[in-house]
């Protein structure tokens, strides 16, 4: 299975002219979006707290979180961003994708716009 990347503009919601743009790995296994600390600090996004996150390898890490606007595929969402080490690849998580009404087509690993943003989970039978 391949990977999917998308260009994301990260904006400071308190000063929307302060932005950073980068290529993000789309990760439907990540709830939050992850951004290297240096870029968040450069646009003035500050930590508002911290949370304990469980990583894919099972480790638990206490990480700083902040609030930012993420713009991708002509959509803008306000969301929690997780401050990561400067050498880590940015990740676009499930919360931002769903808030924008966008999902990953598993057949071709392409992002596709839903006809409407879901307000609840799909029923499974």
Characterize the structure shown.
This protein is mostly beta strands and 125 residues long. It has a single domain (5-113), classed as Acid Proteases (Cathepsin D, subunit A, domain 1, Beta Barrel), CATH 2.40.70.10. It has two helices and nine strands. The strands form two sheets. Strands 1, 2, 3, 4, 5, 6 and 7 form a seven-stranded mixed β-sheet that branches. It has a two-stranded antiparallel sheet with strand order 8-9. A hairpin with a 2-residue loop joins strand 1 and strand 2. The protein is globular and about 40 Å long. The mean pLDDT is 91.
Architecture blueprint of SSEs:
Blueprint: E1 5-12, E2 15-26, E3 33-36, H1 37-42, E4 49-54, E5 60-72, E6 75-84, E7 91-92, H2 94-100, E8 102-105, E9 110-113
N-end to C-end Cα span: 27 Å
Content of β-strand: over 45%
Shape: globular
Radius of gyration: 15 Å
Helical residue percent band: 10-25%
Give the strand tally: 9
CATH topology: Cathepsin D, subunit A, domain 1
Mean pLDDT: 91
Low-confidence parts? none
- What's the CATH first level? Mainly Beta
Helix and strand element order: EEEHEEEEHEE
Biggest sheet record: 7 strands, mixed
Quick structural gist:
This protein is mainly beta. It has one domain (5-113): Acid Proteases (Cathepsin D, subunit A, domain 1).
What structural keywords apply?
125 residues, mainly beta, Cathepsin D, subunit A, domain 1, 7-stranded mixed beta sheet, two-stranded antiparallel ribbon, 2 helices, 10% helix, globular
């Amino acid at each position: 299975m391949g990977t999917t990347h998308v260009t994301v503009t990260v904006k400071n919601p308190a000063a929307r002219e302060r932005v950073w743009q980068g290529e993000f790995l789309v990760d439907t296994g990540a709830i939050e979006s992850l951004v290297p600390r240096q870029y968040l600090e450069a646009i003035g996004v500050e930590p508002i707290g911290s949370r304990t996150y469980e990583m894919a390898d099972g480790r638990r890490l206490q990480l700083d979180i902040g609030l930012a606007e993420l713009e991708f595929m002509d959509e803008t969402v306000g969301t929690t961003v997780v401050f990561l080490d400067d050498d880590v690849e940015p990740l676009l998580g499930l919360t931002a994708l769903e808030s924008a009404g966008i999902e990953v087509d598993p057949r071709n690993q392409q992002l596709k716009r839903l006809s409407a943003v879901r307000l609840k989970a799909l029923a499974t039978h």
